[in-house]
Write a structure and sequence with these properties.
Number of strands: 19
InterPro entries: 2Fe-2S_ferredoxin-like_sf (IPR036010), 2Fe-2S_ferredoxin-type (IPR001041), Beta-grasp_dom_sf (IPR012675), Cbr1-like_FAD-bd_dom (IPR008333), FAD-bd_FR_type (IPR017927), FNR_nucleotide-bd (IPR039261), MRET (IPR050415), OxRdtase_FAD/NAD-bd (IPR001433)
Radius of gyration: 21 Å
GO molecular function, one term: nitric oxide dioxygenase NAD(P)H activity
CATH architecture of the largest domain: 3-Layer(aba) Sandwich
Helix content: 10-25%
CATH class of the largest domain: Alpha Beta
Number of domains: 3
Largest sheet: 6 strands, antiparallel, barrel
CATH superfamily of the largest domain: Nucleotide-binding domain of ferredoxin-NADP reductase (FNR) module
CATH topology of the largest domain: Rossmann fold
Strand order of the largest sheet: 1-2-5-4-3-6
Strand content: 25-35%
Structural class: alpha/beta
Shape: globular
Oligomer: single chain
Number of helices: 7
Catalytic activity: 2 nitric oxide + NADH + 2 O2 = 2 nitrate + NAD(+) + H(+); 2 nitric oxide + NADPH + 2 O2 = 2 nitrate + NADP(+) + H(+)
Organism: Parasedimentitalea maritima
Order of helices and strands: EEEEEHEEHEHEEHEHEHEEHEEEEE
Cofactor: FAD; heme b
Length: 354
C-alpha cells in the first residue's frame, strides 16, 4: 500500500546529529521541535529556508534519505566553487556543512515531491543513482527492504571511494534483503579503494547484465549528464519510457526530447497568445503543454528554473500584461505582477518579461 504523505507544512527541526558520510557529503538528523515526525513518501524532499552571507533567506530542496526513530535524515553534498570560475560555493550546502551544528534549529517546508516509489506495484525495481543522487533512492531502497517482496537492483556510480557516501548502509541492507542485487561503479578508483564492483562508467552491457528479466520500474537520480546517458541506454535496451521515473540533482531539466515543431493549426489562432518580451517572440498557447516554462523551452526561450515544482522561486518572472493561474498550487504564490512559470498557465493573452 502506498504510504500517505503528511500535509506539507512549515516546521522547525532540531539538528540532533551531524555525521560525515564522505569527503564532501554529510547527513543531518532532524527532529521536529514540536509535534510528531511527519510521514513521507520515499523520494520526498524538504524545502529549507536558510540565510545567505548577507542574511537574505534562500530556499533549497534536499531529499529525505531515511526515516530515523523519531525524525528525518537529509544527506547533503557540499557544493564547492568550480575551479577557474568566479562562482561562489553553494549557499545552502555551505550553511549546512560549515555553520549548522548539533542542537541548532532549521526551518523546512514539506515533505513534498513528485518523485515517488510506487509501493502498490509488484514489478521488479531498478534504482540507478549518480553521486549524491542516491539519497532519495536510499529511502526507496529502505522501503523495498521493509516490503521484502520485490526483486530490486541498486546501481550506484560515483568518482571514487572518497566521495562514496552511505555504502555500508546499502551493504547492511543487502545482508538482510535477499532480493537485492547491489552494484557500485567507480569512475576513477584510487589505489586504496575497495568496496566497488566495476570501474569506469555504467555501460549498456552492465545494465543489460544487471536488469531484471521481466519488465521493471526504473528510478533514476543524479547529475544531468549521468541522467541523460542512463535514460538513453535504457531506451536502447527496450525499456518502456513510461516505466522510467527520474529526478535531477542540480538544476532540473527534461530527459524526453522536445517535440518536433509543426506549422500552426487553425486551433492555434484561437488560443491565448504568449509574448516573450525580451526574446521578441509571440507564440500560441498549447493546452497539451503543462506550464509556461515548458512552452518557453519548446520555443527556445531561455528561462531560469530549478525545481520545476513551484517551491524554489527560481522561475519567478514578471508578467507585464495579462493574468496566469495555477492548476497545481505552488508552495507560495508570487506577488502581484509575477508568475512561477513552472506551474503557471495563461488565463488569456499574457506578456512575460523574458
Amino acid at each position: 500500500m502506498q504510504p500517505n504523505r503528511a500535509t506539507p507544512q512549515t516546521r522547525d527541526y532540531t539538528v540532533t546529529r551531524k555525521k560525515t558520510e564522505s569527503d564532501n557529503i554529510m547527513s543531518f538528523y532532524l527532529n521536529p521541535t514540536t509535534g510528531a515526525c511527519p510521514d513521507f513518501v520515499p523520494g520526498d524532499y524538504l524545502i529549507f529556508t536558510v540565510p545567505d552571507e548577507q542574511g537574505v533567506p534562500v530556499k533549497r530542496e534536499y531529499s529525505i534519505s531515511q526515516r530515523s526513530s523519531d525524525g528525518l535524515r537529509v544527506t547533503i553534498k557540499h557544493e564547492t566553487a568550480p575551479q577557474d570560475k568566479d562562482v561562489p560555493p553553494g549557499i545552502a550546502s555551505s550553511y549546512f556543512h560549515s555553520k549548522l551544528s548539533e542542537g541548532d534549529t532549521v526551518t523546512a517546508y514539506g515533505p513534498a515531491g513528485k518523485f515517488a516509489l510506487n509501493q502498490a506495484s509488484d514489478r521488479p525495481v531498478v534504482l540507478l543513482s549518480g553521486g549524491v543522487g542516491q539519497t532519495p533512492l536510499l529511502a526507496m531502497l529502505q522501503a523495498l527492504a521493509a516490503q521484502d517482496s520485490r526483486e530490486t537492483v541498486f546501481i550506484h556510480a560515483c568518482e571514487h571511494g572518497g566521495v562514496h557516501a552511505l555504502g555500508q548502509e546499502v551493504r547492511d541492507l543487502q545482508s538482510s534483503f535477499d532480493k537485492l542485487t547491489s552494484h557500485v561503479c567507480y569512475a576513477n578508483p584510487r589505489p586504496q579503494d575497495g568496496g566497488y564492483d566495476s570501474s569506469g562508467f555504467v555501460t549498456r552491457a552492465l545494465l543489460q547484465q544487471l536488469m531484471p528479466k521481466t519488465p521493471a520500474e526504473y528510478y533514476l537520480c543524479g547529475p544531468g549528464a549521468f541522467m541523460e546517458a542512463m535514460y538513453a541506454l535504457l531506451l536502447s535496451l527496450g525499456v518502456d519510457e513510461d516505466l522510467i521515473y527520474y529526478e535531477f540533482f542540480g538544476p532540473a531539466t527534461l530527459l524526453k526530447p522536445t517535440r518536433s515543431k509543426s506549422a500552426p493549426t487553425p486551433q492555434a489562432a484561437n488560443m491565448p497568445q504568449i509574448t516573450f518580451a525580451q526574446s521578441g517572440m509571440q507564440v500560441a498557447w498549447d493546452p497539451d503543454i503543462p506550464n509556461l516554462l515548458e512552452l518557453a523551452e519548446e520555443h527556445g526561450v531561455m528561462a531560469d528554473y530549478s525545481c520545476r515544482a513551484g517551491t524554489c522561486d527560481t522561475c519567478k518572472t514578471r508578467v507585464t500584461a495579462g493574468e496566469v493561474e495555477y492548476p497545481e498550487e505552488p508552495m507560495e504564490r508570487p506577488g502581484t505582477g509575477f508568475a512561477l512559470l513552472c506551474c503557471a498557465v495563461p488565463k488569456g493573452d499574457v506578456t512575460l518579461d523574458i
